[in-house]
Specification:
This protein is of the alpha/beta class. Helix content is about 45%, strand content about 15%. The protein has a six-stranded mixed β-sheet. It is elongated and about 50 Å long. It binds zinc ion.
Length: about 220
């Protein structure tokens, strides 16, 4: 977010899907990972306007180097290019047949996150592994965000968010947030934090409390 203006898509997302909520965390998951914070119904900019760089919150100081110079930023792990790179690495190590090799046209450098999504929809096992690994990393990050901000709602936008919402096994992994987030294990803290997709009336609610979080964990392992 900039200090001078709020880009229209972000405003739509924040005041659209996040409308009516006092505290909102918005994340756009795509070629990069951007974020915005509405705190007490106002966009939070920070001292110089550089706040809410959620994409550059690291979850692994030994992780891949991000464009910002740090290691293990969620953008370096879960953006579209990061998903494609994860698929390339697995294909290089694996001899298992995968639709991804065909979609890449024989050159792994050509592989994109869209190819991974397409292969997943066609039932490709390796594409599923790649997306599940990505979802697991995202849940760690979202758990950190919830612990830190305890927003009323988290709004996801961008191509990766659409992909997750459209694939139920992948979407179910978001339930792991309950096990990654200290706040939600505290039954006296957040009772319910909503998840919404940009431009969507559907909503996912994440029940809080240790009992419900444990239930979700058990379902996820099943
Ligand atoms: Zn970074």
């Amino acid at each position: 977010m900039t200090t001078t203006q709020t880009p229209l898509p972000w405003a739509e997302a924040i005041w659209g899907a996040g409308i009516g909520f006092r505290n909102v965390f918005y994340a756009t998951l795509g070629t990069g990972i951007g974020s915005g914070i509405v705190f007490d119904r106002r966009i939070y900019h920070g001292r110089t306007g550089s706040a809410a760089e959620g994409g550059h919150v690291s979850i692994d100081y030994n992780g891949p180097r991000c464009g910002c110079g740090k290691r293990g930023c969620i953008e370096a792990l879960c953006s579209g290019p990061a998903i494609a790179q994860r698929a390339r690495e697995r294909l290089t190590k694996s001899k298992t047949p995968s639709r991804l090799r065909e979609l890449a046209g024989g050159t792994l450098e050509n592989l994109t996150a869209e190819h991974v999504a397409e292969a997943f929809r066609e039932g490709d096992a390796l594409a599923r592994e790649v997306l599940e690994a990505t979802a697991d990393l995202l849940t760690v990050w979202v758990g950190n965000i919830i612990d830190f901000l305890e927003p009323d709602v988290i709004v996801f936008g961008g191509g990766i968010a659409r992909l997750r919402a459209n694939s139920s096994p992948h979407a179910n992994r978001v339930a792991k947030v309950g096990n990654q987030c200290a706040l939600l294990r505290n039954p006296n803290a957040a009772s319910e934090i909503r998840f919404r997709r940009r431009n969507s009336r559907r909503r996912r609610s994440l029940p809080g409390g240790s009992h419900r979080a444990t239930q979700h964990g058990a379902q996820n392992r099943a």
